[in-house]
Structure formats: structure tokens, C-alpha cells
Amino acid sequence: MPKEEREFFHHDNVSWTPVAADSGAAGEGMTEKILNFDPEAGVSTRMLRFSPGVETDEVITHDFWEEVYIIEGELHDKSIKQTFTSGMSACRPPGMPHGPYTSPIGCTTFEVRYYRK
Q: What is the pLDDT of residues 71-89, one digit of tens each?
């Protein structure tokens, strides 16, 4: 089943849950709100929150497209030694390496993940 058809709703109606340890991008203090999910394709629309001081250890790659917008805070990519801040966005094609990350002050992002046909 593809993503659910949904009219506007407030994200406060969705709970923050810990990011799964096997997701490749999990660290202590990382939580997510899954706003919509396609179980067949395994892609989602979500908000991701890094608590202050979170650090990840792995470079991440995946087989789907990922678009990310930083709502608040900042995220530092340790591999490329660059810090990204509120209002910045990224579009990552499949296979693009990113991370590992640290977030000294915390960060909240909005992400859309999809496969292109």
C-alpha cells in the first residue's frame, strides 16, 4: 500500500519515538515522528530530532532519494567538517554518503524519502 492519503493534520498528534538502532543513522537521543509511511517501499515522511550532544559514528548511504530541511538547530557533518543550520536543505540521491553527525545544540529536521521510477 502506498503512503496514506491524509488531509492537513498537526504533527503534535504524532508521538516522538526512538530511532531504530538498525536504521544506520541511530544514536542515543535521536527520535522521530513518522508522518506517513509506505510499508511496501519502506520510505517515509518524517521529522527527525537530535537531542543536544547527539553523535553518530557511521557514514550513511541508502538506495532511496532523501530530501531534508532543517527546521531548527544545527547539524555538523564530521566527514566533511561542515555545519548546517536552520533553514538549510539537502537533496540526496541514492548512494550519496553523508554523516557521521554531531549536534551540540540539537536539531530538528523534516525529511521526505522516496524511490524515483
A: 999 999 999 999 999 999 9
Contact, 70 vs 107, CB < 8 A? yes
Structure pTM? 0.88
φ, ψ for residue 24 (rounded to 5)?
85, -15
Question: What is d(CA 48, CA 67) in angstroms, rounded to the nearest whole number?
Answer: 12
Closest CA to 75 of 59, 43, 51: 51
Q: What letter represents residue 83's amino acid?
A: T
Asked if residues 113 and 39 have their Cβ atoms less than 8 Å apart, the reply is no
CATH class given for the domain over 14-114: mainly beta
Is residue 11 classed as helix, strand or coil in its secondary structure? helix
Q: Does residue 78 sit in helix, strand or coil?
A: coil
SS3 12: helix
Distances (CA, A) of 1 to 4, 24, 36: 8, 24, 12
